[in-house]
Design goal:
3-stranded antiparallel sheet; alpha+beta; single chain; 23% helix; 3 helices; 6-stranded antiparallel β-barrel; 36% strand
Length: 196
């Protein structure tokens, strides 16, 4: 590994793409954090293929993380972020040389980033959203992804522009299944989404 670079398993970390928390609700309806994560852009050491690594920050919430990994592994259509591998308690070598264990989901890298960033840019530059043909194409792909999820018994529960990624050809890649659940007869009472 190059000096000053972090690594996990067979990946060299390039940069941080984002971070987040997954929350649930308590009886008083205040959000409490279930787990925190960071998303890093990385590349495989040998073949240099790009990847996005979702790294669990707190080691005592592996069950929730494992659930997200299992849901992602069960979904294989073209408009859902594909999982490359799941790393449990993998050694994470930090830039300063310290090594800690982390749970990691390695996923395909969406080169164009989030739909949210493109919407903001379009509004700033053109004072409007996307042209109708682009909107129709992206919406059609989102519906295909959600329809596949629902037919597979998976409910995303956190659909927002930040969780809709775009690949190199600007195709939709539905991401972040941290709040997802399986459709069943239980009532799921969880505050979801982003405040504000």
């Amino acid at each position: 590994v190059e000096a000053g670079k972090s690594e996990i398993d067979s990946y060299i970390i390039i940069k941080t793409l984002g971070y987040g928390t997954v929350g649930g609700n308590s009886i008083s309806f205040y959000i409490h954090i279930i787990f925190q994560f960071r998303v890093k852009q990385a590349e495989e050491k040998v073949d240099k293929l790009p990847a996005a690594l979702k790294i669990l920050q707190l080691p005592d919430h592996s069950d929730e993380f494992a659930k997200e990994a299992a849901i992602l592994q069960s979904l294989k259509p073209p408009h859902i972020t594909q999982i490359l591998k799941v790393l449990s308690k993998s050694p994470y070598k930090k830039k300063n040389g310290t090594i800690i264990e982390r749970d990691v989901i390695a996923m395909e890298f969406a080169e164009r980033g989030s739909l949210h960033n493109y919407l903001v840019a379009s509004l700033r530059l053109y004072k409007r959203g996307f042209p109708d043909p682009i909107t129709r194409r992206l919406f059609h792909q989102m519906v295909e992804a959600l329809e596949f999820c629902h037919k597979s018994g998976v409910i995303h529960r956190d659909l927002k522009p930040e969780n809709i990624l775009l690949d190199a050809e600007c195709n939709v890649k539905l991401a972040d299944f941290g709040l997802a659940t399986l459709a069943d007869k239980k009532k799921h009472k969880t505050i979801t989404g982003t405040e504000g």
